[in-house]
Amino acid sequence: MSSPLRLGIAGLGTVGIGVVKIVQKHAEMLARRSGREVAITAVSARDQMKNRDADLSSYRWETDAMAVATAEDVDVYVELIGGDTGIAKDSIEAALRAGKDVVTANKALLAVHGQDLAVLAEGLGRVIRFEAAVAGGIPVIKTMTESLAGNDVTRVMGVMNGTCNYILTRMESAGLPYEAVFEEARQLGYLEADPQLDVGGIDASHKLAILSSIAFGTQVDFDAVEIEGIERVSIDDIRRASDLGYRIKLLGVAQMTARGLEQRMSPCLVPADSPLGQLVGGTNMVVVEGDSVGQIVLRGAGAGEGPTASAVMSDIVEVARGVRMPVFGQPAASLTAAKPARTAVPAAYYLRLELQDKPGALAKIATVLGDSGISIDRMRQYGQHSDSSVPVLVVTHKTTPEAIDYAIETLPGTGVLVSDPVELRIEEV
Ligand code: NAP
Ligand code: HSE
Question: What pLDDT was estimated at residue 386?
């Protein structure tokens, strides 16, 4: 057997400790599968005195992650600190320059600095692996870079933030408003330290930007993602969408069009009986469509100690086996700077309008939609909400986001709305 692969792990939180536990529990199995022993030599975190639910006594403790990243007795630097700046980025760069390969779960860093890091790593002949960065335990990076390498990917989409999916499905099952379930999620410890990363759609957009790069051979471009979080999703919309046979999901979609690369993260309606519509709780799902393979659906735990550490270990074993691969599946120098395009692919839309209950109100709405070039597929009026208003739902035929924006701007001018109209895209899945 070859010499051991020596790991230096910085970050001993949820994921870091999960990795330590797998290395300890499955030492023999990992050695068989890797063809060499996988050994931890040095670790680092902020607080050495913290109780970490794992025996770390046989590893050298470094107070500075930089010391782990550059240690002579470390072959692979495993960065599990997080954050797109500061020590995570600095230590990864230092590790690459010191001749180490890098394994990380840091989606924020890769989404923002992925191209520069890939250029640096490949220029130095090193690898960066990041299976855990997208959808936790789901092996989507290896699926796309390896198993689907023979496909022209036409679209990649998914539910990639478990916290948002938990909030949306719990609102529906318990009939609770957003604010109440958000508070529940906070108490259950589901939310990131900055909850905006979850509910604002940023965390999921980091993941989408990484997948886009691999799918379309483009430089990762997080700034080009059109992002909307789930804060405006109301229990009313969840109920009405359900009446119409849909579920609301925070859905990321990336597709290359003739105008450029569309990347959007937004609450969308999906058919309730589709795989995405059936996804409940904190689970993630990624759907990849390729010209030869058709549609692939990957489902599993997107977060948590075991699933995320499982993905990190897959990268470590790959490095131990001697697998060398460009960071984003093709040489960084060959990744093109994609032209970002705002969403223009036509889709059906869901509109919820609260109308004054008086003669001609519906006709005025229909006129605005007609004038906007929007054709109505279905329309449903409910009983009175209050003495004077009725909720009306409209499902449009496929139309452009531009036409919908025009209608949304124009509708208040009819004078028959009692509140702002709500529009949500219906994504074909
Ligand atoms: P976490 O539980 O907050 O742990 C972070 C660790 O980093 C802690 O051990 C902390 O030390 C350590 N740390 C902070 N600053 C440090 C510094 N300057 N030097 C050395 N260590 C430092 O985070 P996590 O959930 O394990 O996430 C780690 C990474 O995995 C992040 O990039 C995250 O986005 C990614 N990820 C996480 C999940 C998940 O389910 N948690 C899923 C996918 C990806 P102390 O313990 O001493 O405070
Ligand atoms: N906050 C993330 C989620 C953790 O809820 O999915 C995993 O990236």
Answer: 66
